[in-house]
Design brief:
Number of helices: 5
Number of domains: 2
Protein name: PDZ domain-containing protein
GO cellular component, one term: cytoplasm
Keywords: Repeat
Structural class: alpha+beta
Domain PDZ: 45-112, 130-205
InterPro entries: APP-Binding (IPR051230), PDZ (IPR001478), PDZ_sf (IPR036034)
Number of strands: 17
Strand order of the largest sheet: 5-10-8-9
CATH class of the largest domain: Mainly Beta
Length: 227
């Protein structure tokens, strides 16, 4: 199913121009979005029932600081339904602290768990904010971005009123992870979702220190673990 862009104009694009996009189509993905409820201090204590293959649908990656961060969450998976998202940190697995633990030991914990559920303690990604913006007929969504970073917020727009500001990095658009995507692809996802968009953003400093390490490369397969 495709959605026409012909009726969607005056979006402030990533290159600073006001885009009047025509004769383009974008594939609208069929998905289920589950609201992520706030957690006290960002800490979540979860007992997640396993799904297909005895997994909950999460892939974690070890980063340089010895922490295990979620780099992928399968849509409709038990982990997704429980509220886990890209960039969250897995603190404990089955009451075992994971910081600094060798990945082969983490995999052993997963393999030896014969129950139909996995117990996790997680921490939401630092500095995350969810901003929902309604598109203005004349002013568009009211922001510009470059390389996923918010570079301009137009005054007196919904974006400004909702607290969007410069020096924030876009992590998700309508709960679809956009880290590593080209700006035009991010823009396409924004346009594919009616006249309201929800962004998950984090401070640029946090992104550069933390989330840039989650972008996969060919040589780092051994740094991943599936749950």
């Amino acid at each position: 199913m495709s959605i026409s862009w012909e009726q969607q104009d005056l979006f402030v694009s990533s290159n600073g121009s006001t885009a009047n996009v025509q004769q383009s189509n974008v594939q609208q993905r069929s998905s289920v979005r589950i609201a992520r409820f706030p957690a006290a201090n960002g800490i979540r204590e979860l007992l997640i029932r396993k799904g297909d293959g005895g997994k909950i649908g999460v892939t974690g990656r070890r980063i340089h600081e010895g922490r295990l961060l979620i780099c992928a969450v399968a849509r409709r998976s038990p982990a997704y339904m429980a509220g886990l998202r890209y960039g969250d940190e897995i603190l404990c697995l089955e009451n075992e602290t994971l910081a600094g633990m060798e990945l082969n030991l983490v995999r052993d914990l997963v393999r030896k768990n014969l129950r139909n559920s996995i117990k996790l303690r997680t921490k939401d990604k630092p500095g995350e904010r969810y901003v929902t913006i309604a598109k203005d007929v004349q002013k568009g969504f009211g922001f510009r971005f470059m390389n996923g970073e918010i570079t301009f917020v137009r005054p007196n727009t919904a974006a400004e009123r909702r607290g969007l500001e410069r020096r924030l990095q876009i992590i998700e658009v309508n709960e679809e992870v956009v880290v590593g995507m080209q700006d035009e692809d991010i823009e396409a996802i924004i346009y594919a979702n009616d006249d309201v968009v929800t962004l998950c953003v984090v401070p640029v400093k946090v992104y550069r220190q933390l989330f840039s390490q989650l972008i996969p490369t060919i040589s780092d397969a051994l740094t991943f673990v599936e749950l």
